[in-house]
Every structure is written in C-alpha cells, then in structure tokens.
Amino acid sequence: MLFTSFSFVLFAALTLLLYFTVPKRAQWCVLLCASLGFYLLCGMEYFIFILYTAAVTYLTAFLLQKRADAEDATVAANRDTWSKAERKSFRAVEKKKRFHILIVGLLLGFGMLAVLKYTAFVLEGVNSVLSLFGGEVGIPSLLLPLGISFYTFQSMGYLIDVYRKTARAEQNPAKLLLFVSFFPQLLQGPISRFGALHQQLIAAHPFDALCFRSGLLRVMWGYFKKMLLADTAMVAIKTLVEQSDTYRGVYVFALILLYSAQIYGDFTGGIDITVGLSEMMGIQLTENFNRPFSSKSTKEYWNRWHITMGSWFTDYVFYPLSVCRPMQLLSGHVCDKLGNGLGMRLPVYLATVATWFLTGLWHGAGWNFIVWGLLNCLVILVSRELEPLYRRFYAVFPRLANSRIWGAWQAIRTFLLMGLIRSLDCYRNVGLTFRLWGSMLTDWNVGELFSGGLTSFGLSVADWAVILCSAAVIFAVSHMGREQPLRHRIARMPVAWCACVCALLVAVLIFGAYGIGYDASQFIYTQF
Amino acid sequence: MEQLLQILNRLHPDVDFTQVDDLYGEGVLDSLDMVRLVTEIDRVFDVRIPAEELIPENFQNAETIYALIERLDEE
Question: CB neighbours of A486 closer than 8 A, spacing ≥ 6?
Fold first, then answer.
C-alpha cells in the first residue's frame, strides 16, 4: 500500500478515528492491529518475516534480561563479601555469557536479512569466478520483504541496548511486536531507538488539537514534496538512465541535479508523512533530516541526512569496532613500531572504512552501493587529513570563515559532490557511472540543452515549471524554518493553518504526479 | 583529574579544558578524539571505556569524563 494511494489515506484516517475513540489504555492495541493490517495489505507473503524478526528479538532480549537481572542480584547479594577485583571478574564473565546470547540473536536476525537480500549478489560473484572454469551455480529468486532493512536494524539495535543494559527488555510480546512493526515508519524509517519510541507507543495520548494540526500540515507537506517534486522528476531520471548512451556530458550533470531533487523530495517527503502522521497521534519520532543540502562538508552532510541510520552505524558499528580490544592492541602495536600518528589513526580509519562498507551494503546488494559507501568514506577521511591545511588557510584568510558567500560556495560544493557520488544509485553500474562522469569533461554539449534538449527526456516546459517552483517553495520554507519549524507557528493560527492545508491539497491535486495513466512510484527508500 | 587534563591537553593544546562546558556539542571532540581518549584513558587509568559509554553526556566536559572513569573503575 503506497503512502500516495487513496487506500492509504483512508486507512490512516480510519486508524486515527479509532485511535482517538477507543479507551486510552487500548490505544496501543489499535496501533498494533493497524500496523499488522498495514503490513498484511502490503503483501501477505511478507508477514511471516516480520513475525520471525519479532520472535527472535523477543526471545533474545528475554534471555539477555534474565541473565542481567541474575547478575545484578548476585552482585548485590555479595556486595559486602566480594572485593572489587572479584566483582569485576564476575561481571566480566557474565558479560561474556550475555555477549554469546547477543551474537546468536544478531546472527538469527541479520542472518535472515543477509540470506534474502545478499544471496543473489554473492552467488553472482561466485559465478563470475566459476565461469573462468566453465562452471555455474543456480541463483534462487528470493522474496525481499518490504522494509526488512529498517525493521531488522531497529530490532537489532534494541537487542544491543538490552545487552548493554541501556534498555530493559519488554515482557509483553504484543507490545514488542508493535515496536518492531509500527506502521508509519515500517517501510522507510526512521530507524528509531527503543528508549525514544517504545514508551510513546504504549502510552495513552489524549487528542491534542495543536499536535494534530501540526502533524496534518507536515503530512500535507510530505505529499507536496513527493508528488510535485520527486514524482515529476522521476520520469526524466528514468529516461536519462535508460538512454545513457544518448544522454551524456551535460545531461549527466542534469541527472545529478534532478536525482538530488527527486531523492530529497521522495525521502524527506516520505519521512514528513511518517513523522506527521505519528505527531497527529501524539507520538514524536526522531527527526531523520536537518536541512541536509545546507551542509558545508561531507561530514556535516552525514550528520544531517538520514540521521537515524548514521547514528545507528556510529553507535553499533563504528564505536564498538574502534574501541574493541583487538583494535586497541593493534593500535598500540603500530604506535610502538610506526609512531603515534599512524597508530592513533588506525582504529578510527579501519572502523570508518568498515562502517561505510556496511552502510553501502545496507542500501543494496550491488557493487554500485559498495563503491558509493567507500567513496563517501574516502571524501570524509581525506577531508579529515586536510584539516591542518584548512586551518592554515583560514589563518591566512580569517574573514572567509564567517563569510556568507564562502559558506554558500561550500554548501554548493558539498551538494554537487554528494550528488555526483549519489548518481551511482541511478546507473547501478560502477564502470558506466565512471565513464559518464568522464563524459562531463569530454562531451561539451551544453548548447544542446538549450536547443530543445531540456524537454527531450520526458519533461515538458510545464513539468520544469512544477519542479523549479516546488523546489523554490521547499527551499524557502526550509530556510524560514531553520530556527523553529514553520508548521509549529502556523498550527497555532487556525485560519492560517486551514489556508495552508487547503493550498497544499490544491497544489497536490492540480500539479501532483498521479492519476490514471500515471505509474505511481514506490518510495525510493522502501527498496532498501 | 590532573592526569585527565594532561591527556586532553595533548589532544588539543589550544583548548582550555577547565572552561569548556560542552566538548562534544561545541565540536571540540570528534570521533577520532573520542577513540584516542579511550585509548589514553585505558593506558593511564587502566580503565576500559566500552562502546556503550561513548555518548555525548559522558563527554560533555572534563568533569563528566572524570566521573565516568571513576564510575567504571568502581563497577
């Protein structure tokens, strides 16, 4: 069921009606039924996979909690008799046992994701080696359940939190199932943390007019971004990619700009619908974006774009890898042999490469995604190494550091660099993408663009007008809301709120890409 | 505390760590510094800081870092 379909609008309206009419203590049951119903409507065949993930998560967390409670009780009972060393030793042994339980849970959870998502990719690699010897293995066609990467990562994050004792395991399996399957965020995130979401899901939420108005405005804003900007641009991107032999040179640059607009409208629009719908019910989800295209560096961009995924990888992959005992020992060894400079950098750099490799793989089973991750990593590490140079540069030109023009240039540079790397998503072929990047330097066809080229790849003049006007409106609203979201101010003024909702609805109905003959596009991030 | 301030000063000689209130929020410490700090604390205090403790609240200023070291040493 697409967020942009009429059936979803009806489904959401019915859920809201039930949510606010049933007794408060039963609200979470409405959410659970709606979430399971939503996933069933998305595809009956997917259902067993989410139940499996919830079951693995529940049982593993239950065992982890049981051991942790027993450990704490034993330590408390022996507080006066054990020495500090004895207590530490006991805790270390117990932590190891809990770690083994965690590993089993993670293998079962991530194992299913790995089998379903990466089997074909791995076997294709195996076949490319076997073909040298004339061999081949069959590649099974496996089902990839919608949103599996999102709900698996959210569930496994919860398991790690229980292992770390930063969360207590939920005893009620139905309540845990709700945390795993909460329908607004099921297909494209945000990847919520247990501590930030779980209590909100099961708490009572009386109707709050301000939250409702603010949430509805955000939902409408999400539809505006998705249906005016992202879906209008989609047709052109499809043509530019499918006919990449024809559309080279400046058209690759056009694709970079159009795809940046599309993915921004699509992903942030989808998240706006998710967060807005939750806000209408009084549930505040973690923000996934913070004006990403105003970032002045790649590092800043990744602190502002898909924030929940970035923080997941930082907390559960990057830090554990960089401070684990083997890495610390390696670091110490390299410090002794090759000096502190390299030795101190080594844990961070190895962990950064591993994190970005996995981030790429998370997005999809393909070399283009892996190269995409590693290129992001390369830019971040090179920028880090160049920091002393930047500091010297700003010492020579101190006024630049606070210059708005220089800041704008940095934002444009970052936007273009991220767009360039992101085009690997579109062409899905590393060699082809690199050749097309090269064509921007070798094929000088800028003139073509203005002699009919701009309307040759599926966009009419009216489509361009819709894209440019909606992008301008989105930019202006984003700029005005940099201190406080604009919708919070508008929601306090009922007349202005009504006018904004109506204006957005009219804009979507008149200018949005939908209707008979329109191939409704799934949100890009649901495929991840 | 003196030893911790020495470690911090080795990371950033230009920063007065007794005056900064939010090392992480103000961008004084980044991920590389955090990992370096963990390595140095392990070496000097013989206290291992696990990954789950690498959260902004624990690294707000020299005092919170020292409180973390004391707590982990005690546990």
Answer: A477, A480
Contact A166 B38 (CB under 8 A): no
Selecting from B38, B74, B75 the residue whose C-beta is nearest the C-beta of A323 gives B38
Q: Domain segments of chain B: what residues?
A: 2-74
Do residue B75 and residue A88 have CB atoms under 8 angstroms apart?
yes
Neighbours of A246 (CB within 10 A): 11
DSSP 8-state code for residue B56: G
d(CA A224, CA B72): 50
Residue A470 Cα distances to A35, A165, A447, angstroms = 32, 46, 26
Contact A419, A300 (CB under 8 A): no
Q: How far does B51 lie from chain A, in Å, by closest CA?
A: 5
Whether A516 shows a pLDDT value over 50: the answer reads: no
Task: State the greatest distance between any 2 C-alpha atoms of chain B, in Å, as a whole number.
Answer: 34
d(CA A331, CA A328): 5
Cβ separation A332–B36 shorter than 8 A: no
Contacts of A331 in chain B (CB under 8 A): 39
Write down the pLDDT at residue A140. 82
Q: What pLDDT digit, counting tens, does each position of A442-490 carry?
A: 988 888 888 888 888 888 888 899 899 999 999 988 888 888 888 888 8
Give the model's confidence band at A517: pLDDT under 50 very low, under 70 low, under 90 confident, else very high.
very low
Rounded-to-integer distance, Cα A447 and Cα A370, Å = 35
For residue B42, the distance in angstroms to the closest alpha carbon of chain A comes to 9
CATH topology of domain B2-74: 1.10.1200
B51 to chain A, any CB pair closer than 8 A? The answer is yes
Is pTM beyond 0.90? Reply is: no
The answer to whether the CB of A39 falls within 8 A of the CB of A180 is: no
